[in-house]
């Protein structure tokens, strides 16, 4: 496992963000004023207030989706992120307008044109600025030839990252000794061993040196670092932590002291993103409840008529940080007494005919929208399991309970990746947990949006009973 200091999780917004944000918001604000003046003949107070809210709201919205992050994908994906940020900002403004009952103060014509043209003027600014930023940083990297000291799988992984993701001018590798093996991929040459390090740095004009060695080589790392203090080269240590299960890992400084975050809850590590996630969750949940109310009422009636018993099935499950919550579902089984909690299986006799239908279509999960509205769950996150199941798997699967480092969700990365349905073997549950931990380690609002968009396609799975 390697850390990338450029990861945005705990990294402050840089100059690139603020320049592009300033240009974009200036254009959007001028556009709103121009449209208002052309259509109404005046720039009324409510539109000035709207512009102010748009400027303030754009910072958390664009930050949450990593808009203008030059370390991310190319121009096309950057435009997709820009669209996501713009739509998220508009959604936030709509919620404010709805809650304050001020929506009727604005002209629909102005808002519609501002919505469409606002994105287009941002695109017009984004493309040249993105290209200028990319070329500028590429020229900086070209002036900083890099070298790696290492000899194992971590070295090979670092080679791939530097060449493919960061596109750094990697000159070659240096092994620990003349007879030591090196597990690199052959993509860059081996220039020598540590006895030749100064000569290699001088001949190749190296400006950045990566040390890819484990903690067991700490004495060697320290000697090497001290020896190279008088050489004009940046030294970066990439510790080998592959044996550790880490969540949302990052590197930061605490009062000038280096800190490696091995396990950190994404919602506390990214408070702005967590706020956007909470607003997005509740807004979409409320809208979904209103739009799906006829379906919810019809399903409730059908459940009541299908078999005796309550409409809703409420089960205690573990939520965020292991707190016990009650998860709501439409009852899909006949009322029965179980000495232990058992997962539903294919052709399970406990499931009613209508219950089989709502389980197959995931309609039985819709009452969890109220769990989201109450704040117990999120739209996206690891699916909450019954407490009895958690007790069973906790000591059988490594880091199983780490799934609760984020709010449980109605859907998740495991569900859209095919790891849904019955988990009758330890391996199947371990695969689901693997996806859950991957989600926690890579969480972002943008990832939530992608999972929500892909969820309808996952409902055709044959593994839903």
What do these coordinates show?
The structure is a single chain. Helix 1 packs antiparallel against helix 4. The model is unreliable at 1-12 (pLDDT under 50). The longest helix is centred in the N-terminal third of the chain and has 35 residues, at 108-142. The protein has 16 helices and eleven strands. The strands form four sheets. Strands 3-2-1-4-5 form a five-stranded parallel β-sheet, sandwiched between helices. The two termini are 37 Å apart. Strand 6 and strand 7 form a beta hairpin. It has helices spanning 15-40, 45-64, 75-100, 108-142, 153-165, 197-204, 218-227, 266-269, 271-291, 293-306, 353-360, 368-374, 387-393, 413-416, 426-441, 445-458, and strands spanning 146-149, 170-175, 190-193, 208-211, 234-237, 250-254, 257-261, 312-318, 324-330, 378-380, 409-411. The chain folds into three domains: 8-140, no CATH class; 146-243, Rossmann fold (3-Layer(aba) Sandwich); 269-458, no CATH class. With 465 residues, the chain is an alpha/beta fold.
Distance between the termini: 37 Å
**What's the structural domain tally?**
3
- Proportion of helical residues: 40-55%
Would you identify the regions where 5 or more consecutive residues have pLDDT less than 50?
1-12
Count of separate DSSP helical elements: 16
Major β-sheet strand ordering: 3-2-1-4-5
What value does the Rg take, in angstroms?
27 Å
Topology as a string of helices (H) and strands (E): HHHHEHEEHEHEEEHHHEEHHEHEHHH
């Amino acid at each position: 496992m390697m850390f990338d200091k450029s990861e945005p999780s705990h990294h402050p917004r840089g100059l690139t963000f603020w320049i592009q944000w300033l240009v974009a918001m200036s254009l959007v604000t001028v556009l709103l004023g121009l449209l208002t003046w052309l259509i109404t003949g005046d720039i009324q107070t409510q539109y000035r207030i709207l512009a102010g809210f748009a400027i303030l709201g754009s910072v958390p919205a664009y930050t949450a989706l990593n808009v203008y992050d030059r370390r991310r994908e190319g121009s096309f994906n950057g435009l997709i992120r820009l669209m996501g940020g713009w739509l998220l900002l508009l959604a936030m403004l709509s919620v404010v307008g709805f809650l304050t009952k001020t929506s009727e103060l604005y002209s629909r014509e102005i808002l519609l044109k501002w919505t469409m043209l606002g994105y287009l003027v941002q695109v017009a600014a984004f493309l040249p600025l993105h290209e200028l930023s990319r070329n500028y940083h590429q020229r900086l990297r070209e002036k900083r030839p890099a070298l790696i000291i290492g000899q194992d799988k971590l070295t090979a992984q670092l080679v791939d990252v530097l060449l493919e993701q960061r596109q750094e001018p990697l000159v070659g590798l240096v092994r620990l000794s003349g007879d030591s093996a090196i597990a690199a991929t052959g993509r860059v040459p081996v220039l020598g061993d540590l006895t030749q390090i100064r000569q290699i740095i001088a001949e190749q004009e190296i400006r950045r040196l990566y040390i890819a060695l484990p903690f067991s080589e700490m004495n060697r790392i320290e000697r090497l670092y001290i020896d190279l203090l008088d050489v004009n080269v940046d030294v970066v240590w990439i510790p080998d932590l592959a044996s550790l299960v880490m969540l949302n890992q990052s590197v930061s400084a605490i009062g000038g002291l280096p800190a490696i975050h091995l396990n950190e809850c994404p919602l506390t590590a990214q408070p702005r993103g967590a706020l956007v996630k909470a607003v997005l969750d509740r807004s979409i949940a409320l809208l979904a409840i209103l739009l799906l109310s006829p379906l919810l009422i019809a399903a409730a009636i059908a459940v009541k008529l299908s078999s005796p018993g309550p409409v809703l099935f409420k089960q205690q499950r573990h939520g965020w940080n292991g707190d016990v919550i009650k998860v709501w579902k439409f009852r899909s089984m006949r009322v029965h007494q179980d000495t232990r909690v058992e997962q539903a299986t294919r052709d399970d006799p406990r499931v009613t005919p209508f219950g089989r239908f709502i389980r197959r279509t995931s309609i039985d999960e819709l009452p969890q929208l109220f769990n989201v509205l109450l704040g117990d769950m999120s739209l996206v996150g690891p699916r909450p399991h019954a407490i009895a199941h958690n007790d069973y798997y906790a000591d059988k699967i490594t880091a199983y309970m780490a799934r609760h480092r984020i709010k449980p969700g109605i859907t998740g990365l495991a569900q859209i990746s095919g790891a849904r349905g019955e988990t009758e073997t330890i391996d199947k549950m371990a695969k689901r947990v693997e996806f859950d931990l991957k989600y926690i380690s890579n969480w972002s609002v943008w990832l939530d949006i992608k999972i929500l968009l892909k969820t309808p396609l996952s409902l055709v799975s044959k593994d839903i009973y």
